[in-house]
Amino acid sequence: MRSLVLATRNPGKVREIESILADSGWSFSSLQSFPDVETPAETAATYAENAILKARFYAIATGVCALADDSGLEVEALSGAPGVFSARYAGANASDADRRALLLSELAKVSDLNRRARFVAAVAICDAEGTVLNVSEGICEGTIISSPRGNGGFGYDPLFVPDGFNQTFAELADDVKNIISHRARALLNTRTFLAGA
């Protein structure tokens, strides 16, 4: 069975990725298995470029095929912010709660009542030499609510209600989120690639 390093130390993200890619015919490990590997700076201008940058870095550093993703929340009333800076929106050492609080305070300053937003994800796979094998993207449209709800998920999930639902990503069951989320949509395309690779 071929091996794939999931380029994250976030246990929630590892579970989500493993669940969606479970029947792809590959075995998985995470960066927890490579404690000495550093983290590359995400300097690219797009999600796909950041995902490739990370996948290439971790594949070469570990000597194993690597899967990396980059995702972000784009809020219409904030001209697409926080976008590719979603994880670093409130500073390098900020918590998820800090980032959510900043987002809500920025939205409060905008007279626009538009709460439309979308999550965007890109997933890249590179081989041990750093060659890009596949890039998949996914989008989930929805709205931002005025205060966090739910205990599941991570990041901005407690503020985001996907179209067609009344619950936030943090309230939805994993089996639902693992079909409709931006990352799930990108990973479903990735699974198709992996199953045929």
Q: In words, what does this structure look like?
A:
- Strand 4 and strand 5 form a beta hairpin.
- The protein has one domain: Maf protein (Alpha-Beta Complex), CATH 3.90.950.
- It has a 6-stranded mixed β-sheet.
- The protein contains 5 helices and 6 strands.
- With 197 residues, it is of the alpha/beta class.
- Helix 1 crosses helix 5 and helix 4 packs across helix 5.
- Helix content is 31%, strand content 24%.
- The mean pLDDT is 93.
- The protein is globular and about 50 Å long.
Q: What is this structure's SSE topology?
A:
Layout: E1 2-6, H1 11-21, E2 26-30, H2 47-62, E3 66-75, H3 96-108, E4 116-126, E5 132-144, E6 160-162, H4 174-180, H5 182-196
Parallel strand pairs: 1-2, 1-3
Antiparallel strand pairs: 3-4, 4-5, 5-6
Q: Would you kindly provide a brief summary of this structure?
A:
With 197 residues, the chain is of the alpha/beta class. It is 31% helix and 24% strand.
